[in-house]
Every structure is written in C-alpha cells, then in structure tokens.
C-alpha cells in the first residue's frame, strides 16, 4: 500500500511538472512580451517591442503621426490627417491587427516576434 502511494505521488508530481511546464510555455508564447509593433512609413520601417511603453512620432506624408505603446497594446494618439480614421481605430494588441493612416502613408501592425524575418530587425537596429 505504501509503495503504491509513493509511486502514485511520483507520477502525480511528474504529471504536474509537465502541466506546469506546458502552461508556462503556452503563456510565454501568447504573451505580449513576444509581440512587436512594426511601423512602416515613407522613409523607414521601425519595430518596437510591445513590452516597452513608448511614445513614437512618425513623420508622415501630410504631417506627424503619434503612436503610443502601453501595456502590450498600441494606438494612434494623434495624427495630422483629414479623416482621423487611424485615431478612431483605437487600441490594438493582438498579432495580425493593424492600423493604417493612409493620408500619411503610415501603417502599424503587430506581429509575433517569432514570425518576423531578420530583415526588419536589421532595419530597426
Ligand atoms: Zn490618419
């Protein structure tokens, strides 16, 4: 009886270890820490880690576009464009989402870091 209890506990511990490891692995993969914002403008392509809060000012075709990164999400806080569609878009925080300011030729999108190629990283640094 005691022996089987010992093995039960051992197996249970092992199973728990696997579950906990997989939770951490999945949480890490879906976490915003692994996402980054890629900003395309007329002159450059910049990428920012969504982990870091930042205020970014982009020089667009019509004027400035102000982008804020906060708590793993980002939004266009202000833009010098006639329609303000980009500002009305609100906040995005999921990979694959994007905001475009067409009058300024600026586009922001969120990607998983693992999806991106090395070219963008090279431009950013
Ligand atoms: Zn706009």
List the helices and strands and how they pair.
Elements: H1 2-30, E1 35-40, E2 45-49, E3 54-59, E4 64-70, E5 73-79, H2 85-88, E6 98-101, E7 106-112, H3 118-124
Antiparallel strand pairs: 1-2, 1-7, 3-4, 4-5, 6-7
The protein binds zinc ion.
Structural class: alpha+beta
Give start-end ranges of low-pLDDT stretches.
Answer: 116-125
Q: Which value, in Å, is the CA radius of gyration?
A: 21 Å
Tell me what the CATH architecture of the largest domain is.
Sandwich
Bound molecules: zinc ion
Question: Mind telling me the CATH class of the largest domain?
Answer: Mainly Beta
Separation, N- and C-terminal Cα atoms: 63 Å
N-to-C SSE series?
Answer: HEEEEEHEEH
CATH topology grouping of the largest domain: mini-chromosome maintenance (MCM) complex, domain 2
Helix content: 25-40%
Structure summary, number of beta strands: 7
Strand order of the largest sheet: 2-1-7-6
